[in-house]
């Protein structure tokens, strides 16, 4: 069955279901009124959960459809049966309304406009933040393992950073062909703050679990250098055709080696030339930048 036929079937399915759902809801409105206030907050939380499920499934279509409304729509079609059952159980009028409106459109389900008004941007942001969370969990687990068993061999901070960057970049591998599109989307002016916040959060997590807990000007310097290393290696990876991206990891090794040399020079120079007051102010400003980044993403600064 073609994609168009799938969408036509989707329209018929959801139109009939939406009508039945509305009829049922009209019959039970008076009985449900006392309970609506209690369900309001949980409905909002549940809507976020539904969005996450749809975006997770939509990622499977990105290699073919790109970071687009079409990919989200395809993911939504796959999720529609589960979504309808859950919406009916929760009696969420907001979600069913979005679905019903979408069923009236030819081509793309209305979820693209109702639940995801930003289209492909929402898909890119979901993927980026999900990957960051996965890496954070990996690094946290490694740190706890070392803490529970001090006899285990420890990596140097440089090796921890290097391995963390590789782990994170490998998450892009299945989407390498379409990732330039994602980068272009996040480079649009409205998306720049979120893109920057994602990057700053990523490098801060890597530095933190590599043991960087210092509070000085070099705290900022190290993170900015790591952000540069990550982005340049990311760009290199997109044009790397070597087996298992072997050339990319060699490129990463060289960049980290270069960064260590530059950092040694900058660190020594900074400590000797800047007064303590200037360093303190710079550190406060740097900390504020990363706190702002996490606030943009709705993340808690406390670990």
* Number of H- or I-type helical stretches: 12
- What structural category arises from helix and sheet content? mainly alpha
The geometry reads as globular
Biggest β-sheet strands, sense, barrel: none
- End-to-end separation in angstroms reads 49 Å
Q: Could you tell me the strand content as a percent range? A: under 5%
Number of strands: 0
The radius of gyration is 24 Å
CATH 2nd-level architecture of the largest domain: Orthogonal Bundle
- Number of discrete domains: 2
Average residue pLDDT: 76
Order of helices and strands: HHHHHHHHHHHH
Helical fraction: over 70%
Instruction: Enumerate the spans where pLDDT stays under 50 for 5 or more consecutive residues.
Output: 1-25, 99-108
The CATH class assignment of the largest domain is Mainly Alpha
**Topology-level CATH name of the largest domain:** Tetracycline Repressor, domain 2
Protein name: Ubiquinone biosynthesis protein
Pathway: Cofactor biosynthesis; ubiquinone biosynthesis
Organism: Harpegnathos saltator (Jerdon's jumping ant)
Region (Disordered): 25-45
């Amino acid at each position: 069955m073609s994609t168009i036929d799938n969408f036509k079937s989707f329209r018929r399915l959801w139109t009939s279901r939406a009508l039945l759902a509305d009829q049922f809801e009209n019959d039970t409105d008076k009985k449900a009124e006392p309970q609506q206030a209690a369900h309001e907050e949980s409905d909002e939380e549940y809507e976020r959960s539904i969005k996450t499920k749809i975006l997770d499934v939509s990622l499977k279509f990105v290699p073919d459809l790109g970071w687009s409304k079409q990919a989200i729509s395809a993911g939504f079609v796959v999720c529609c049966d589960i979504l309808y059952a859950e919406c009916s159980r929760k009696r969420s009028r907001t979600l069913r309304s979005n679905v019903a409106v979408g069923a009236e459109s030819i081509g793309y389900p209305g979820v693209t406009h109702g639940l995801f008004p930003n289209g492909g941007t929402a898909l890119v942001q979901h993927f980026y933040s999900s990957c960051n969370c996965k890496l954070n969990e990996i690094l946290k687990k490694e740190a706890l393992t070392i803490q529970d068993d001090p006899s285990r061999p420890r990596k140097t901070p440089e090796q921890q950073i290097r391995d963390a960057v590789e782990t994170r970049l490998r998450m892009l591998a299945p989407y390498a062909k379409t990732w330039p599109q994602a980068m272009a989307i996040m480079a649009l002016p409205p998306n720049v703050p979120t893109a920057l916040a994602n990057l700053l959060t990523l490098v801060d997590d890597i530095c933190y679990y590599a043991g960087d807990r210092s509070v000085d000007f070099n705290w900022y310097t190290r993170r900015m250098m790591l952000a540069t290393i990550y982005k340049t290696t990311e760009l290199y990876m997109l044009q790397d055709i070597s087996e298992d991206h072997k050339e990319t990891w060699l490129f990463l090794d060289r960049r980290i080696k270069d960064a260590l040399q530059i950092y040694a020079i900058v660190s020594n120079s900074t400590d000797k030339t800047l007064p303590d007051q200037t360093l303190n102010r710079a550190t406060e400003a740097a900390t504020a930048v990363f706190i702002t980044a996490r606030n943009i993403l709705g993340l808690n600064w406390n670990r």
